[in-house]
Specification:
There is one protein chain. By secondary structure, the chain is of the alpha/beta class. The chain has 9 helices and 10 strands. A hairpin with a 2-residue loop joins β1 and β2. The protein starts with a strand and ends in a 6-residue tail after the last helix. The mean pLDDT is 95. Bound molecules: adenosine-5'-diphosphate and magnesium ion. Magnesium ion binds next to α1.
Length: 243
């Protein structure tokens, strides 16, 4: 069953066509990855799914609801881990979660135990009263992951969840994402780490210059084209992911 469908999705920023007429379907319970180098249009495509901005043209439905018709209802059922760190630097770790819970009308008496439970999940309990500024990059990403789970989302959207993290922190995040997937949460992520895509994603969309070049499972792509996903990317786009 589809949880997201996009048909002819296009997004322009002024004269720039950032996403160019793409079609995709994301199934309930899968982990779907958008792969591609900087500027491919990954963040733009994701932001439209999480109703941060409307498409220029095309139709996008999440949970069967058109993103332009009832974004509020969609937002209440999804969690978002944005590419940039947007934690509140003036608040503690725990306060960041409690304040965020207010956006979802979670009662005060429920938000404290919820925040503590989420901190336990991402292994940050001992940091609950620490200021954001003293967290490492990996801890901040884990806290943002915890924050994205405040409304117990059916669909989790993760924009470069592990970019810039050391291997240990990256594995810690993968571990949590696998755990969420095992309990049935649908995951959509972007990454330019091919190893991450191979480890986590059931299917990937390979993007280049606003277009989807192909959509398939990582293993089928590697079987058909030979080599690892990095080699597949190079073969299909003529570009490396570092460009
Ligand atoms: N708010 C914006 N205004 C103008 N151009 C933008 C904006 N956001 C992204 N772009 C441009 O759109 C293209 C796609 O960007 P983006 O979706 O962020 O790609 P990715 O996430 O794959 O790096 C890039 O050329 C980028 O510079
Ligand atoms: Mg991006």
């Amino acid at each position: 069953m589809e949880i997201v469908t996009a048909k002819g999705l296009t997004k322009d920023y002024g004269p720039l066509r950032a996403v160019n007429n793409i079609d995709f379907e994301i199934l309930r319970g899968e982990c779907f990855g958008f792969l591609g180098p900087n500027g491919a249009g990954k963040t733009t495509a994701m932001s439209i799914i999480y109703c941060f901005m409307p498409p220029t043209s095309g139709k996008v439905k999440v949970f069967g609801i058109d993103v332009t018709e009832n974004p509020g209802l969609i937002k209440s059922r999804i969690g978002v881990m944005p590419q940039e760190d947007n934690l509140d630097p003036d608040l503690t770790v725990l306060e960041n979660l409690i304040v965020y819970a207010r956006y979802f009308d979670i009662l005060k008496k429920d938000s404290l135990p919820l925040a503590k439970e989420l901190l336990e999940f991402v292994e940050l309990s001992e940091k609950e009263n620490v200021n954001i500024k003293s967290l490492s990059g990996g801890m901040k990403r884990r806290l943002i992951l915890a924050r994205s789970l405040v409304n117990n989302p059916e669909l989790l959207i993760l924009d470069e969840p592990t970019t810039g993290l050391d291997p240990h922190s990256r594995h810690a995040v993968w571990d949590k994402l696998n755990h969420l997937k095992a309990k049935g949460t649908t995951l959509i992520l972007t990454t330019h780490y091919m190893e991450e895509a191979e480890k986590l994603c059931d299917r990937v969309a390979i993007m280049d210059s606003g277009r989807i070049v192909t959509i398939d499972t990582p293993s089928r792509l590697m079987n058909v084209h030979g080599g690892n996903l990095e080699a597949v990317y190079l073969k299909l786009t003529g570009r490396t992911l570092k460009e």
